[in-house]
Design goal:
Length: 232
């Protein structure tokens, strides 16, 4: 059974997601833009079943720097009156329904996973969705490329470079095209016989789904009188 013939694959909504962010010294990256494109594989073709994008107002300790503007084109003025993280990510979070199986798709998914985890109070449903990383997927399906950066994959698959590359919506659109081409190639590959095989190769567990290991000497492991006892 090929990848696209797997009922589990057909039942899954794949949400391609991308953030632009600013990285203040001493703090984790703070999102300033998000875009998401929800896709389903139906009757041999991809169908768009949802789309979302929003600027996000960063906190005062994480201003948009000249370096961020040079890369993304986003300016401090553009995000000054943007929705807060709670507003922007909350609106995205409400798009996810409890009875639908989802997987997020991202280029270098660890970046998106960290941003989502750090904002999990604003998007608890999103934060529980596991991810697929297009980099290990591509390494398996098209080995031998000089690297697996998004620009290299766009060149390999003859996907036109968008004029606004490094904006979230543009990057989501081209990442979705790369993902679709990888799925098409994987459908003919004996290495992947279904969604489980794809997850094994390219899956990344959402941080909220990773069990927390208690420390050996967590204070709650001891009776109260021991915890309060004078160690001397």
């Amino acid at each position: 059974m090929g990848l696209t013939e797997d009922p589990a694959f057909a039942a899954t909504t794949f949400v391609v997601i991308d953030f632009e962010a600013t990285t203040p010294t001493g703090y984790p990256a703070q999102p300033i833009e998000v875009a998401a494109l929800a896709l389903r594989y139906q009757r041999g073709a991809w169908a768009t079943v949802g789309k979302y994008e929003s600027l996000i107002r960063p906190p005062e300790f994480a201003p948009v720097t000249p370096a961020v503007t040079a890369q993304t084109g986003l300016t401090p003025e553009q995000v000054h009156h943007a929705p807060s993280p709670a507003e922007a990510l909350g609106a995205l979070d409400r798009r996810f329904t409890a009875d639908t199986p989802y997987l997020l798709v991202a280029q270098h998914a660890a970046t998106e996973a960290n941003l989502i985890y750090n904002q999990r109070e604003h998007c608890p449903a999103l934060a529980r969705v596991d991810l697929l990383d297009t980099i290990p997927f591509a390494k398996t399906i098209v080995p031998g490329l000089r690297n697996y950066k998004l620009d290299t994959l766009l060149e390999h698959f003859a996907v036109p470079m968008p004029a606004d590359r490094h904006r979230a919506a543009a990057d989501v659109e081209v990442t979705a095209q790369v993902f679709a081409r990888l799925v098409h190639a994987a459908a003919k590959s004996p290495q992947l016989s279904g969604l489980a095989g794809l997850v094994k190769i390219a899956g990344r567990t959402a941080k909220c789904n990773i069990p927390v290991q208690s420390g050996l000497f967590d204070i709650e492991d001891f009776p109260q009188e021991q915890a309060l006892a004078d160690p001397s």
